[in-house]
Specification:
- Its EC number is 3.5.2.2.
- There is one protein chain.
- It contains 13 helices and 19 strands.
- It has about 475 residues and is α/β, with parallel strands linked by helices.
- It has one domain: Metal-dependent hydrolases (TIM Barrel), CATH 3.20.20.
- The strands form three sheets. Strands 1, 2, 3, 4, 5, 16, 17, 18 and 19 form a nine-stranded mixed β-sheet that branches. Strands 6-9-10-11-12-13-14-15 form an eight-stranded parallel β-sheet. The chain has a two-stranded antiparallel sheet with strand order 7-8.
- The longest helix has 18 residues.
- The protein binds N-(aminocarbonyl)-beta-alanine and zinc ion (2 copies).
- N-(aminocarbonyl)-beta-alanine (URP) binds next to loops.
């Protein structure tokens, strides 16, 4: 048995902030004690002046995802290693059911085939623990039946799309059926809420007018079309008697829909992402083709939306901050959309920078330290059935722990980050706070600028159902 003591730090969880020592035996936390309580250990990590926080739980990533005619640049190996560098010790990635249109035999794949493919990609390659959601690209009798089996295997959430007609899109009838099945089985439906049918009309009209630059991506994916879809998704969920989780929410009007539903006592949950808190349509409108670096869906919004999102995080109308990490290189991938913004692969890199950017939210006074940990670790763990194994520091929890230096500064850059992508959305931006040491199930995997883990350290996590509904 190995014993590690993290001594003298400020232990910050969603519930508490306390100067304490953390004692770890093998993979688990066994005690959180008064400082200097006298526990003996083989290894002592001095955390004086540091925060000691639960490792981040990023509940929305797309490692090596085929999308928009190419594949997201981070593999499970590179992406989870980058996550570790940034203080995230668990990801929940999206396995994908293949739609009929993307298969040679013209038949939709099964959920099982999709999940097996994702297991094969991740198995033996991850630096940190990982779990899966399932993207349902074809809601039919047989995929609806499969939902129950997946819930039993720890894949307890299912993403549907109101966007991307012909790719992932589901119509309202299919969405209603999936929500009903979710209510029956305990599976949580996650919704990409944008009116894709209307967006495709606006795309066609914009291109016909010669509006081909990246900034038009933000204009055609209108904020009201996000609000409308969010409203519709919530109403469909109410009719089905099911909870709903809205992913990557960016528009203030969409947040208002979630807030109203929550005020009425309905189980509507939503996440936002750091890019919506720190970037805006000004970035999409950067000169030349630079704006392509900022093309994602839902799109970045005008700066004014940021204050509403921070407020939503404070009031818990937004419960989670995930990254939607889906990186495409500027050269060779984003440039597929030169002369036609609709061909720019949608997605941004971010798995490495989430904890730091949210800590910057603490530095700038938007949220408290405990709320930082709540939205980045504790709530995503609870939302997706991983708590208290993940998301906190308490006896019995996995020893996924970050020793975080709250005063160190860093300048973000593609030249120093570890994500396999040739640009940073935050190039040259200085933030305060930096990961010093990362433990994954009791093993130090990052320390003082050195990566000490290896591919295959991370294990698949079977998840419970959403812990806000029991
Ligand atoms: O632009 C995005 N968000 N790309 C990833 C796919 C998705 O919709 O989450
Ligand atoms: Zn989406
Ligand atoms: Zn996504």
């Amino acid at each position: 048995m190995s014993r590690t003591l993290i001594s003298g730090g400020l232990v910050v969880t969603a519930a508490d902030e306390v100067l304490a020592d953390v004692l770890i035996e093998d993979e688990k936390v066994v005690a959180v004690t008064a400082p200097g309580f006298g526990a003996t250990a083989d290894t002592v990590i001095d955390a004086t002046g540091m925060y000691v926080v639960p490792g981040g739980v990023d509940a929305h990533t797309h490692m090596q995802m085929p999308f928009g005619g190419t594949t997201a640049a981070d593999t499970f190996e590179t992406g989870t290693r980058a996550a570790a560098w940034g203080g995230t010790t668990t990801i929940v990635d999206f396995a994908i059911q293949q739609a009929a249109a993307s298969r040679e035999d013209g038949r939709a794949g099964s959920l099982r085939e999709g999940l097996d493919t994702w297991h094969a990609k991740a198995d033996g390659n991850c630096a940190i623990d990982y779990a899966f959601h399932m993207i349902m690209a074809d809601v039919n009798e047989s995929s609806l039946k499969e939902m129950e089996a997946l819930v039993g295997e720890g894949v307890t959430s299912f993403k549907l799309f109101m966007a991307y007609p012909g790719v992932f899109y589901s119509d309202d009838g299919r969405i209603l059926r999936a929500l009903q099945k979710g209510a029956e089985t305990g599976g949580l439906v996650m919704m990409h809420a944008e009116n894709g049918i209307a967006i495709d009309v606006l795309v066609e009209q914009a291109l016909a007018k010669g509006h081909t630059d990246p900034r038009y991506h933000g204009e055609v994916r209108h904020q009201l079309l996000e609000a409308e879809a969010t409203h519709r998704a919530i109403k469909l969920a109410q009719v089905a008697g099911a909870p709903i989780y809205i992913v990557h929410l960016s528009a203030a009007q969409a947040l208002a829909e979630v807030t109203r539903a929550r005020d009425e006592g309905f189980n509507a949950f939503a996440e936002t992402c750091p890019q919506y808190l720190f970037l805006s349509t000004d970035d999409l409108a950067r000169p030349g083709f630079e704006g392509a670096k900022y093309v994602c869906s839902t799109p970045l919004r005008p700066k004014e939306h940021q204050a509403a999102l921070w407020r939503g995080l404070r009031t818990d109308d937004l419960s989670v901050v995930s990254t939607d990490h889906c990186p495409f290189c500027f050269k060779g991938q984003k440039d597929m959309g030169l002369g036609d913004f609709s061909k720019i692969p949608n997605g941004l890199p971010g798995v490495e920078t989430r904890m730091d950017l949210l800590h910057q939210g603490v530095v700038e006074g938007h949220i408290s330290r405990r709320r930082w940990i709540e939205i980045a670790s504790a709530t995503p763990a609870r939302m997706f059935g991983l708590y208290p194994r993940k998301g906190t520091i308490a006896p019995g929890s996995d020893a996924d722990i970050v020793v975080y230096d709250p005063t160190a500064t860093q300048v973000h850059s593609a030249s120093t980050h570890h994500m396999a992508v040739d640009y940073s959305c935050y190039e040259g931006r200085e933030t305060t706070g930096k990961v010093r040491t990362v433990l994954s199930r009791g093993r130090v995997i990052v320390d003082g600028g050195q990566y000490r883990g290896s591919a295959g350290d991370g294990q698949f996590l079977r998840r419970d159902t959403c812990q806000y509904l029991r």
